[in-house]
Amino acid sequence: MTKKSILFFACQLAWLTPFAQEASKVLSWQDVPKWEYVRMNGATPSPDGKWLAYVSGPTEGDLTLTLRHTQDTTKFDYKIGGATTPIFFNQNAQYFSFFENQKFSEIKANEKSRRPSSKKLKIVALKDTASVTFDKVQSFSFSNQDSKWVAIRFEGQNPGVSPAMGGATRPTDVPKGADLLLYNLITKKKYNLGNVSEYSFNKSGQYLAYIIDANGKNGNGIFLMDLNTGISNALHNDEANFSRISWNKEGTAFALLKSKTDKKYKDPVYTLLGIKNLKAHNADVFTYSGLDENQITAGFGISQNANAYWSKDLKTIFFGVAKLEKAEEPKSTEKKIDDIAKADAKKVAEKDSTAKENAAAIQKDSTQIANNGPKTPSTPKKPEVNKKDLEKPDMIIWNWQDVRLQSVQKNRLQTDKNYTTMSAWHVEENKFVSLADSAVKSISLAPNQTVGYGFDFKPYEYESNLNGQTYGDLYIVDIKTGQKKLALKKLYLNASRSIRFSPNSDLLLLHQDGHFHVLNTKTLALTNITQNIPASFVDMMEDRNVEKAATSSFGFTADNKFVLLLDNFDLWKVSVDGKSANTLTDNWKSKKLMTTGVNYIYEDDEFIDLKKDQYFGIYNHDTKQKGVALLASNSNKLQILKLDDINFGGIRKPKNSTNLFYTIEKSNVAPDIFVASDKTLSQEKQLTNNNPENKKGVLSAGSKLISYVTAHGDTLEATLYLPANYEEGKSYPTITYIYERLTYEKNNYSQPAYPGGGFNRAMYTNNGYAVLMPDIKYKLNDPGMSAVACVVPAVKAAIATGIVDEKNVAIHGHSWGGYQTSFLITQTDIFKAAVAGAPLTNMISMYSLIYWNSGSSNQSIFESSQGRLTTGYWDNWDAYVRNSPIYHIKKVNTPLVIMHNDKDGAVDYTQGIEYYNSLRRLNKPVVMLTYNGENHGLMKEVNKKDYAVRMMEYFDHYLKGKPAPDWWAKGVDYIDLPKHLEERAF
């Protein structure tokens, strides 16, 4: 070797050494807040596709917004403080905007002291990066197609509602108006409007509708400004509150609500306002209260809980109505005083009378004693109690005939109070029509808005609430008259709730009895369009107690001629009359390929237009590879563009560009954003760098797919995630993480974080663990036994690879995974340690308990959902006992940590208590962690951190031989608990 080559080799080693050291770095939980990554969710391309803006930075800390050009290396960074920000470009892509927040430390300090954090709005010109900043901004909006203006609403003493919130109002006299600034992006001129509570540009950006809400309601109303002239006009003034501006899609009309207090009613009474025929400085205003016209059903009025909006033909306004609660009749002051005086006088008289009677009785007894000796004294008379003075009992009556449990009714009380009945006002005829009613409670409108459909669940609601099997009578509703026609009786909705209108509104696509059907909304004729297709449209992966569950559909094509349907693998183009059917895939069943979804990349398209290029997500059921396929315009076959060991994010196309944006990630490679300038994605460019050299290999060496045969004879797969710095031939301690089928996520990336369920894959693989995630296939009436039949062979197959150390395998699961964990350790000793989060442990006692997060019973979950049992336990006793961990508890030999919170609204806290106490009674090693006030998963950051650390300490002890933590090795005195927790605090 020459000196020159030796020198070159030495230099290369010197250059690589720091990265090799970094790659071998073991992360602690204290390192998680410093972990830096790109926030994929908020990344935004410009409308012309030339720019991309995204936020990056540490998990906890101050962040950076990056603006970069998509075709060259031009890049600009902006510091945005300790919180992420929405990113907006104006429609002509000449400006973009974002919020600058306070520093992370300041935001946290504000949270502790319960002070609001303020933010600044920065608007940047893309041509030269010149910028302007506005302080204490509450909301803002660009002027849509016009692209010349931005409206900026500032923080006020009584902040109102931003357009993004839908204009919801609070029934209060406190004014919600604040300053609204109109800033011209071209001239840089500013115009201030005071006391604005809500605002919205129309589509073209020519008009700004805004609401004034001022002190004393002085000048309140709805205003319209023509931005071409700068002239603003009051369309409607009143001493009232206005809210919920809603423009039509074309931006030619809008509707809103007005409310005023009325002594007759407890809540404000609402009036509907419709504005159309926009003129130079004016518009036509239509008002409707329903009270004056006496057309709304007696006792009902316009609801504040639903937006009002125009029909496409601008002849009808749709809105909601709700019950009006009448106010109690107020008594006059004189009458109140008189009533109080009379009541007091009566009480005094009764007291005096009773005192006199008691005195007389005592005197009588004294005389009797003097004359005849001692005698049992008379019992003094008790004052009479006014029944009205008694407090009402604080109780609930549960009746077996209740359609919904009292707990459900209580849980949904506010929702029911806010329920609105969808209605229509036909403006030209001044005619009110109630579309929904107490039976058919919601209506889905067809594209032409002349017809709709809805379900009547009432005949089946009681039974459905018991067993979870849901049926509904399907009605077709005439929007003009409100007339309802019964189309289908007792449609089974567990199989599919996906019902789609055709573009011309004449047809409905639905699934029934294992086939797709088309319903004619005019004749109610039902046509089975898949009966002659040699494929199954029943989901092969559904193993719950559901009859003939549907495969997926993508609905009607834009030309109204076809529907796109999936069998379990191939994609079919089927004529709406069912007479022709062709596959758009080339016998994908033989390749185990399937389409998983369509990318809706044309924002104005309501249906799939086969005259345009369409992109579909694809997945290989056997290899777990993912990718994307192209259905080129006017083509009849999908072309596979990418299929690999990746997770491919959906394609996004900016409105005014042919550029296509998407993300790609691997199990050990963080997602990055790519752009392609051609439709086949061959001209691809990476725009972000979420995987710098110093992070490669830090978290994991990748993933491996393992095939195994279950005890039931099924062939399934499991993903084995390799530890960082994995060495072939070496065995590693392994965590088995379970839920249901998990291999679909084989190529999903995991980054360090504090999870609500305690387990973070990235932290374990970084710390030298392998992680095994097997698929579980279930047999009805044997959920627990099915888990054993699948998980144990998966673990043995993983051990056979040599990667998993058979003496150091643990298991963890949360919720349903927690149940299976607690059950598995009653059936096998293959695991050295276990952690069960929020576990169901006794199927019999759990069956009739309440799912408090919804108020419903668990019975329906057991009989039609995850429980996978077919009846109640009284008719299926052996299955319930056979699959309940508690009934096999004597066989537990595995140390166990249970995490179960006292406010768990999904799996009742008593399930964890029952298992813990039983194991304790048997003197089995068990610890239960209860985070007070937490629900089914952890929400408080401090609790997430604590649980994550304890879980790893526990696994490190059993699988790596590290010293046992005190909380596990020793008992904990309640009096010492605060000190114990303080010592462990982050």
Automatic annotation (TrEMBL):
Q: Which segments show compositional bias classed as Polar residues?
A: 364-379
InterPro entries from the entry? AB_hydrolase_fold, Peptidase_S9_cat
Q: Which residues form the Peptidase S9 prolyl oligopeptidase catalytic domain?
A: 792-961
Q: Which Gene3D superfamilies match?
A: alpha/beta hydrolase (3.40.50.1820), Prolyl oligopeptidase, N-terminal domain (2.130.10.120)
Q: Which UniProt keywords apply?
A: Hydrolase, Signal
Signal peptide segment: 1-20
Instruction: Spell out the SUPFAM superfamilies in the cross-references.
Output: alpha/beta-Hydrolases, DPP6 N-terminal domain-like
Question: Where are the residues of the annotated region Disordered?
Answer: 349-388
Q: Locate the coiled-coil region(s) and give their ranges.
A: none
Per its record, how is this protein called by name?
Answer: Prolyl oligopeptidase family serine peptidase
